Amino acid sequence: MRPHDMGTLFDEAAAAGARTVFHLDRPLDIAPDAGTRWSVPELAALVRVTAARLAAAGVRPGDRVAIVKDNHWDYDLLACAAVRVGAVPALLSARLEPETLRTLLERLRPAALVTTSALLDRCRAASPPLRVTLDAEVPGALHLAALDAGRTRPPVRRSDDDPLVIHHTSGTTGVPKLVVHSTRTLVHKLARFEAVRYPGIGIRRDDVLLNASAYAHGRTFCWTAVILSTPPAEVVLLTGDDPDTADPLLRAHPPTVVEALPATYVRMRPLTTRLDNPFRRVRLYISTYDAVHPPALRAYLTATRHRRPLWMQGWGQTETGPLTFRFHTRRGTLAPGAETTARRLGRPVPGRTRLRAVDPDTLRPVPRGRPGLLLVRTAALALGYLTEDERWDAKRVGDWWSTGDIGVHHRDGSVSVLDREVDSMPGLSCLRTEDLLEERLPQALECVVLGATDGDPLPVVITADGRLDPGAWKEATNGLPALREPAVLTWDDVPRTGTGKVRRAALARRLTGTGLAGTGRWT
């Protein structure tokens, strides 16, 4: 089955005989009393009922529906229900700062807001008159479970080029952008490309697939289409990244394929060293959003008993979907100097993506092997930024799209990302320096190097207890470019996006009182 209509996706999968069983770490927020085990027909029925309830609330074709809730896969189930009634779902992370959330709601101007009683207060200043709560009855709002689900309506069809869904970018360097995708860009160009059982990396019918993601973001909506099109035996879904909480579920259903956020891989890493670790059967790891540092790659590839496990690392953006892929192997991650090539993110997807590096000032191409601003061409490019047409147009360079990343297009066609342009400094890659520091500081959960507007870069070392041995730091920085004395923080001290990325601009302002080093022209 190939994905076509997100509003009827689960119905089509059920009709095709998909027998996948979904296991959750906690009940869905839209079905809190229905347990943690779901079949495809049961999920299809849930989407139909939810669509009927949204229609009963007053949601109409063409309406924008903002969805703000705790992290769970039912972000995508709600989105499919909204699509079914002809609306355009806009998925907003509950981890956004209240001011940022209100800004995005003001840009969005939704006809309806679907949220929880706790989050309603954060949204109230910019929320529409039609408010629907998931968890409890609240004065002035409708309660989803109390709405009439008996009047089911036929699915509303839309043009492949009409807006389908709205997601926001991570927001590492400022207020996130609202990215509008269509059925053509997200389903036909992105999901259909993945919905093939490729040898070695395609989903098999006997696979147990683990996904631990930020479900408000664009990757999982596309992932949902793919999984229902190439159904595995089981799917395990995690909403958090606490290893002790996840361990029992993963032991009960040890995965063969894992897709997780880079930050979640970091947080779950202690499980790799436990006796009979839950990753012992994994044949394929998948990561997107950001690079995974070499120590984490090594830990997971070593943890599995599979003879030749693969790690597939994708680089892309909300606006474009995946742009390049790279594969890591156990032998490669254990090789001397592996950390120096960790930022080489593979080659553009053949026949689908073109890439070039240009001078960020003149926009003229730079020779292969030299740093430049990375531009891409892809048919999967989104429709635009909602209410920010000028910002969208400013990132277009003729037929090319600016990623906002500084990187190197190598002679063999592969790409290395050095820094976001807004975070870049002459003669230094903050990202490569972070890789080297993490390799040399085993006690570090994460290292962040912030380019400064004046003076040397500021390193931030994140440890379990907020402490760092001065001697270990001195040894780790031997031979590196000049850095300031490190700021040592715990994981919870660091401002993060909904996908676990460090909000670099916010962290820089907190620690230095100034912004990042780059121009910010391409953000």
TrEMBL record:
Molecular function GO terms recorded: medium-chain fatty acid-CoA ligase activity
Name of the featured protein: Acyl-coenzyme A synthetase/AMP-(Fatty) acid ligase
Limits of the AMP-dependent synthetase/ligase domain: 25-386
Gene3D superfamilies found in the cross-reference section: N-terminal domain of ligase-like
Superkingdom per UniProt: Bacteria
GO biological process, one term: fatty acid metabolic process
Keywords of this entry: Ligase
Family affiliation: Belongs to the ATP-dependent AMP-binding enzyme family.
Organism: Streptomyces murinus
